[in-house]
Amino acid sequence: MNTTDTHTTDTYAADAHTTDTLGTSTAQARSAVLEREIRRDPGRFRILTGDRPTGRLHLGHYFGTLHNRVRLQDLGVETFVVIADYQVLTDRDVADNLTEVVEDLVLDHLAIGVDPQRSTIFTHSAVPALNQLLLPFLSLVSVAELNRNPTVKDEIAHSRQSSVSGLMFTYPAHQAADILFCKAHLVPVGQDQLPHLELTRTIARRFNDRYGNGTPVFPEPDALLSAAPLLLGTDGGKMSKSRGNAIALAADADETARLLRGAKTDSERHITYDPGARPEVSSLLLLAALCQDRDPREIAEEIGAAGSAALKKHVTEAVNEHLAPIRARRTAYAGDRGYLRQVLREGNARANAVAEATLAQVRTAMNSHY
Ligand code: TRP
Questions:
Q1: What does 209-229 look like in DSSP terms, one character per residue?
Q2: Class of 253-334 per CATH?
Q3: N or C: which end of the chain has fewer CB within 10 A?
């Protein structure tokens, strides 16, 4: 959702160095175990995940993370979705049109099937008790620990701020509050968020050790890494709103057709699925495959000698067909801003109740219940 190309759905490009040192393969193995446990007993788990409100969601977000949220919700896992409207200020001085962007994010979630009766969508700026957790949490981490977070370093390198703000530096601890306020067990994220998850676990552990008196206040949450597919933008680069190469969920069928007609391919006529040698063609095949729940190789074989025009036509039809019900729902909800605000108000009320209960426990544990 970000436009700095460093977060969740841009994970695919996260460099090997960053992720290897943080044990991506360990997290992946653990995620597979967790997936089995979720299937066995979804009611045992609570999930928190979220995004920075930086713009409308696109197909990269959808197949990367959003799809998975709906899947987990539908399996029966209690789900919280934070719209991280303070975190958005980490890499920009002013967040423009925030109300509209936040409402659009709610809209995109409702359109893809997030059900506000079963999932809690909230903005963290509306939950004071969540934010208050930041202060004790910050006391549990060192400046050196904050300083060596590779994702933050990367974001600082890409920041559009004239100088690095204190918020940028401390936001992973704030993210720990996002996760721990509701005592989430699972956090579905991309690899780039693993350092934040590690810090969250550290904070939970240290809090329990220091203040728990034998009864842990916080669970140590796990990352739930999903096998995020590598979808490129129409120019062959990373799909990103700021590059103008993304297909938004909100785009209509004609715009989708236009964007895909202009998509970069290569000079080889015969269509084959070969992500290494033919990234653009393969990404288009993958997009069609994801929409149709098919194998991209099979689609490639079908198109074969018909070439890239036929491929683009196929992808356009697949995307438009898959998104038709989502877009219809989106249009229906878009006409009712009052309803969107109500969804947020109710989500915020629920999040506040949970956060206040947690803060009360924290006060008791810290002997600051006056
Ligand atoms: N840092 C995440 C991103 O940039 C957004 C986020 C904020 C988040 N709080 C969270 C993700 C808590 C998971 C859990 O995309």
A1: HHH-TTS-SS---EEEE----
A2: mainly alpha
A3: C
